[in-house]
Amino acid sequence: MQMAHSLLDRLSRAVKRLSARIESLEYENVVLRDHLERSGFLRKESLSAHVHRERFAAARRAHPGACEATLADVVQNRVLAGTIAACAGVPEAVFVALRTPAACPVEPEPRPPEARALGQPPEGEGQGAQEVKQPPVKPSDEGLAMIYIFGGNDDAKTLNSCERYNPITNVWDPLPPIKQARSAAAAAVLLGQIYVCGGNHCGQTLSHVEAFDPRREAWQPVSPLLRSRSAAGAAELSGMLFVCGGWSGKQALASCERFNPSTGTWELVAQMAHRREWPTVTVDNGHLYLCGGQDGSEDVSVVELYDPKTQAWETLAMALQCRRNAAVLVVNGQLYLCGGHGHDGRHVLNSVERFDPNLGAWEAVCPMQTHRRNAMAAMVAGRIYICGGRGSRGNHNHGGGHALRTAERFDPNTGTWEVVSPMASRRYRAAAVALPM
């Protein structure tokens, strides 16, 4: 009896020690999660979703088995329907009506866009499946495109390497290198080819232009710009390639030129009202819009519009302040600012803001998972892809960090970021273009 009491006493003390240890670990876990969330390295929603997925996967491993039943099969089973109805407090008659094919035919589940893009037949077709007449599926993969990245800087040199991202396979593929290594180049698509214009190499501002043919995967030289410039903006408008603003090596530029593919020559167009480097250029309703950028010392908040009919620039009655070294993109008429530098010019950010021109207001959206500046941005199928850039220094979000190869994408519909495959090379200040498949 005495031995039993002694054993129970030892077990009781062991349980108390374990309880105290568990309580201590729970407290440390709360503190650690709070610190990571405040530092921007962790989001509560992402962690909860990941924990849920891991628990579900563990349950499936512990209880393996296959289940071929669908929701339609469940609804068609009267016993199961009655049980569900009883638990849910819904009259069984409702479920009986739902399971009647004439009352509510179950439509086939739409195929994922990746399958449609690859030309895969619906599941079961050509494999002895029951003949079921399916309604035509409207293609929802409009806007699918490849992301092309050209040049940039790593932590040691200016790059001439190039790569391409396929959002269907989530794979980066190497491309033939560009002839002239460059960073801070402007790039845009014209007649199915990607033009990479100007840029900087070892402190020298460039006028070189090269065109990449994605079908042949080959480069060809193009007539040089009329003026050397880096950090310019580029866009296609009315069958012409416009390159606007930038940095001459001494000052920000207000000049703008356009390339005519029919003649293979460049010509100057009207000057912008404001000098600016790193402008954001977008096209809407047959007009060219410029916003953001810097004039060499100050941020430019004025928005300008170019009308190809009048061949003149117009200053719009709205101000749009963009922070420096952010990745900027226009999606569905809204402007997104991703990362960049804080107002003090030292801290690298992961914050993301969205500007709605109809409301004339900014709003904060879910931050990126990585602090980055001078990153590359592209839009594919309504989603924002942010690639590379320059990160934080050490464990702090100060400037001067290393070049990144990580990439992530944002879905405006769900308001969430997710990591995608990293690039093959670390790089920042590269040219980025999305080209439809």
From TrEMBL:
SMART domains: Kelch (SM00612). Residues 105-139 are annotated as: Disordered. Pfam families: Kelch_1, Kelch_KLHDC2_KLHL20_DRC7. Residues 115-124 have a biased composition (Low complexity). It comes from the Eukaryota. PANTHER family: BTB DOMAIN-CONTAINING PROTEIN, LD33804P. This is Uncharacterized protein. It comes from Pyrodinium bahamense.
